[in-house]
Structure formats: C-alpha cells, structure tokens
Design goal:
The chain is mostly helical and about 230 residues long. It has one domain. Helix content is about 75%, strand content about 0%. The chain contains eight helices and no strands. It is elongated and about 70 Å long. The N and C termini lie far apart (about 60 Å). This is ABC-2 type transporter transmembrane domain-containing protein.
Length: about 230
C-alpha cells in the first residue's frame, strides 16, 4: 500500500463498514413486518411460542449474515491491496461481520416496533448521528465535550475503529512512498491523526457484541409487548 493514499484507503474502509451496515439493516426493516403478521396469526393459534420463533429467527439469520458479509468484506480486502497477513484479514472480516449483525438487529427492532413505511424512513434517519460520530467525518478529539458521549453509543464507531486497527495497527511496518514526502508513512502516525492510537481492537469487538445482545433483547421485549397488546 502506498503511504500517499492512506486517507483514500481510510475512506474505502469506512464505506465498506457502511455498506455492510446498510445491506444488513434495510432488508430486515422491509421483510420483518411481513413475517410478523404471519407469526402473530400462528402464535394466536397456539402453534408455537414467541421464544421459539425469536430463537429460530436469530439462529437462522446468523449464517446468512456471517457468510455473505464475510465474502463481500474479504473480496474488498484483497481488491484494495490491504496487508496480506492472516490475522489482519480475520480481524477485518470479524469486525465487519459483527457490525452487520448489530445493524441487522437494529433493523429487526425497527421492523418489530413500526410499520414498513415508518421503518424505511426511520432506519436511515437514525443512522445519520451514528455515522456522524463514527470518527471518520469528525475526529474524536474535535468533538465538543457535551457531545462526546454520542461517540460511545455509535456502533459504527467501533466497527470503523476496529477495521482501521486491523489494517494499520499492531506495529505495522512503514509504508512505501511514491511521492517526495509522505506524512503518514508510519501507520501509527495515521492512527494518531485519526484519534485511534490508544484504541483497542478487542474493546471494539466487545462493544459490538454488547450492542448485538442488547438490541436483540430489546427487540424481544418489544415483540412481547406488542403481542400482549393484541391479545
């Protein structure tokens, strides 16, 4: 990778995370309300419980998101000439897959709580502040103190930060420079510019896992509440 193109490469990494996020969220917002109508009818006929439906839905979603998100991310990784090191490839894929799972869970929550028309509008709208405080458009150091808490509730922040660390972190050697001077020839210097020099990859993985589990639990509670309202 050329040190002259690190900022362009950071943009590529960010929009890879964004793509996995949107492709996981939006189909769920569109399809789950239709699945919900079938489930409600069958549940009221005492065919199966909410727990059985929700557990089956969660287990069925996992392979789809893991395989398709993983395939896309790995193809992008190789096409953009990222470092060919197995641990970096696996970390890059893992953090993007987890981001997709969180986004899919958020789409499930929106789809469970609202009608399709409202969900299709609300999904992208609620994503705007999450993206804005992800660390790509505004460095964390530049965020005012009274808004800094928003960076910690942005799951895109953890996805993007983890992806950047997998590519530029872990004492990566100096990059080649095709021009007279490259300010970010040292990957650690670029991470410092992005306010990610003190970040920890496993903290990002842990945060995304907490988001995934937390949103899934909230979605279950929303479904349970809606069923009680219908009965």
């Amino acid at each position: 990778m050329d040190a002259a193109n690190v900022q362009s490469n950071a943009g590529c990494i960010f929009f890879t995370v964004m793509f996995t996020m949107f492709t996981a969220m939006m189909p769920t917002i569109l399809t789950f309300p239709m699945e919900m109508s079938v489930f409600v009818r069958e549940h009221l006929n005492y065919w199966y419980s909410l727990k059985a439906f929700y557990f089956a839905k969660t287990i069925a979603d996992l392979p789809f998101q893991i395989v398709f998100s993983g395939v896309y991310v790995i193809i992008v990784y190789f096409m953009t000439s990222q470092p060919m090191e197995l641990d970096r490839i696996l970390k890059f894929a893992a953090v993007n897959i987890l981001t997709a799972l969180v986004a899919q869970s958020l789409g499930l929550l929106i789809g469970a709580a609202m009608k399709i028309e409202t969900g299709v509008y609300l999904g992208p709208v609620t994503t705007i502040p999450v993206v804005l405080f992800s660390g790509f458009f505004i460095n964390f150091d530049a965020v005012p103190e009274y808004l800094s808490w928003l960076t910690y509730v942005s799951y895109i922040r953890y996805g993007f930060e983890g992806a950047m660390l997998s590519v530029y972190g872990y004492d990566r050697e100096k990059l080649k420079c095709s021009i007279d001077f490259c300010h970010y020839r040292k990957p650690s210097q670029f991470l410092k510019y992005m306010s990610m020099n003190d970040a920890n990859f496993w903290v990002d993985i842990g945060a995304l896992t907490v988001f995934f589990i937390g949103i899934r639990i909230i979605s279950y509670l929303v479904l349970r509440f809606k069923l009680k309202m219908m009965q």
